[in-house]
């Protein structure tokens, strides 16, 4: 019995720590330019991969235009919209625990299967339809608890909405990834995704050049923010490498359960280090959602 599953757990835990302790540190330093945060998080690992694996530039030239189009869609939904949304949700989590945002984002597989049904014409079973309804109810109670949506301020709902957008975007990215997954290895796919995400976010940043320039100067003059940016980039890259390394020798049934270390780590850190406790209703809803996701990934159907 190999121990590759431990690498998946470590990688997932690192992502959980990043979502609760690392990325939110930007906001404490006064950096609220979410687009710039996402750009830096993708640019630095891309530069590292470019320097250490120059053969990737040659491999890209051999890729067909249709596959390039799918990679752009992956970068657009997974790298750009999805990441922007989850970081924005963390930024707005002043009124909600960070772990709540991450729990909602973990509904991604639900939307991956749904989008595969709509876009790729893949079949879905009656069991999935039942699980889908249960998951929607879980998301509702994660967002509102037992409170009426009409009595909750919008600023308290926005983090959940952005997290839901992230889940849908990552789900779409997963669907498009299926088109290229059988043709290219994970390392090359990650490199291309980071490249296109860096390009897309750079274009968006240039549209508001004045604000971007001001923020870059502020970051460059603050040693602590520079260290944070480097730490998050290296941290995320190591987590991804550990995760994919473990995934190579671990069955999907086990990897799905191991990946739950991500949201569970976030919940525990949020509770015991940051003092943000989820109420019993949200804890129950979160558990139901996670169990639904495990079921969908472990079912032969």
From TrEMBL:
Keywords: Cell membrane, Membrane, Transmembrane, Transmembrane helix
Subcellular location: Cell membrane
Database matches in InterPro entries: AA-Vitamin_Transporters, EamA_dom, EmrE-like
Superkingdom, taxonomy of origin: Bacteria
GO cellular component, one term: plasma membrane
Domain EamA positions: 6-143, 160-297
Regions that span the bilayer: 5-23, 29-48, 68-86, 98-118, 130-150, 156-176, 188-205, 225-244, 256-275, 281-298
UniProt KW rRNA-binding keyword: no
Principal subcellular localization: membrane
Membrane topology type: Multi-pass membrane protein
PANTHER family referenced in this protein's UniProt entry, alphabetically: INNER MEMBRANE TRANSPORTER, S-ADENOSYLMETHIONINE_S-ADENOSYLHOMOCYSTEINE TRANSPORTER
Protein name listed in UniProt: DMT family transporter
Source species: Streptobacillus felis
């Amino acid at each position: 019995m190999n121990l590759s599953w431990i690498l998946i757990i470590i990688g997932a835990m690192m992502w959980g720590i990043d979502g609760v302790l690392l990325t939110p540190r930007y906001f404490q330093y006064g950096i609220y330019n979410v687009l710039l945060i996402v750009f830096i998080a993708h640019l630095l690992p891309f530069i590292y991969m470019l320097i250490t694996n120059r053969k990737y530039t040659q491999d890209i030239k051999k890729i067909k235009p249709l596959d390039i189009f799918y990679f752009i869609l992956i970068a657009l939904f997974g790298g750009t919209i999805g990441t922007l949304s989850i970081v924005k949700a963390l930024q707005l989590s002043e009124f909600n625990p960070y772990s709540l945002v991450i729990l909602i984002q973990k509904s991604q597989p639900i939307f991956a299967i749904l989008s595969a049904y709509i876009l790729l014409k893949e079949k879905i079973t009656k069991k999935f339809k039942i699980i889908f309804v249960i998951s929607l109810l879980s998301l509702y109670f994660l967002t509102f608890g037992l409170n009426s949506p009409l009595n909750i301020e919008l600023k308290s709902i926005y983090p959940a909405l952005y997290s839901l957008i992230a889940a849908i975007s990552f789900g779409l990215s997963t669907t498009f990834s299926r088109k290229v997954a059988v043709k290219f290895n994970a390392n090359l796919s990650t490199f291309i995704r980071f490249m296109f995400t860096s390009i897309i976010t750079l274009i968006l940043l240039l549209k508001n050049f004045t604000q971007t320039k001001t923020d870059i100067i502020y970051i460059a003059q603050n040693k602590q923010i520079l260290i944070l940016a480097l730490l998050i980039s290296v941290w995320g890259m190591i987590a991804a490498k550990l995760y994919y390394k473990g995934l190579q020798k671990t069955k999907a049934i086990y990897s799905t359960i191991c990946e739950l270390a991500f949201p569970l780590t976030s919940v525990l850190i949020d509770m015991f280090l940051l003092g943000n406790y989820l109420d019993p209703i949200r804890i129950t809803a979160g558990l139901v959602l996670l169990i639904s996701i495990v079921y969908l990934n472990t079912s032969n159907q």
